[in-house]
């Protein structure tokens, strides 16, 4: 399938996608600052993928140590700090 340039006059279709509410709300506010809708933002992302034939950012797979740390954090294992100051105080000791 050949990718075509996006033209403003092209017919748009409606689709349904499931989004994380927090991310959707943030993105809506973000795009609003640029006078864009969420739909505009998603279309810009898709156009960039079509033009470059790749994701517009690098995807990294966490290594074994990072995956372990993520799992521990999700399970409440480890030390938590109420502030950066508390963390820094602990690091200095």
List the helices and strands and how they pair.
Blueprint: H1 21-32, H2 38-52, H3 64-74, H4 84-92
Family: Belongs to the RelB/DinJ antitoxin family.
Protein name: Type II toxin-antitoxin system RelB/DinJ family antitoxin
Organism: Candidatus Acididesulfobacter diazotrophicus
Walk me through this protein's architecture.
- The chain is mainly α.
- The protein has two domains: 21-52, no CATH class; 60-93, no CATH class.
- Helix content is 51%, strand content 0%.
- It contains four helices and no strands.
- It has helices at residues 21-32, 38-52, 64-74, 84-92.
- The model has no long low-confidence stretch (mean pLDDT 89).
- It comes from Candidatus Acididesulfobacter diazotrophicus.
- InterPro entries: Arc_rbn_hlx_hlx, RelB/DinJ.
- This is Type II toxin-antitoxin system RelB/DinJ family antitoxin.
- Pfam families: RelB.
- Belongs to the RelB/DinJ antitoxin family.
């Amino acid at each position: 399938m050949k990718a075509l340039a996006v033209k403003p006059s092209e017919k748009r279709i409606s689709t349904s996608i499931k989004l994380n509410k927090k991310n959707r709300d943030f993105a809506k506010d973000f795009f609003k600052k640029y006078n864009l809708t969420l739909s505009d933002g998603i279309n810009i992302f898709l156009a960039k993928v079509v033009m470059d034939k790749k994701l517009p950012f690098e995807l990294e797979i966490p290594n074994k140590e990072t995956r372990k740390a993520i799992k521990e954090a999700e399970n409440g294992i480890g030390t938590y700090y109420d502030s950066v100051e508390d963390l820094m105080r602990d690091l200095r000791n």
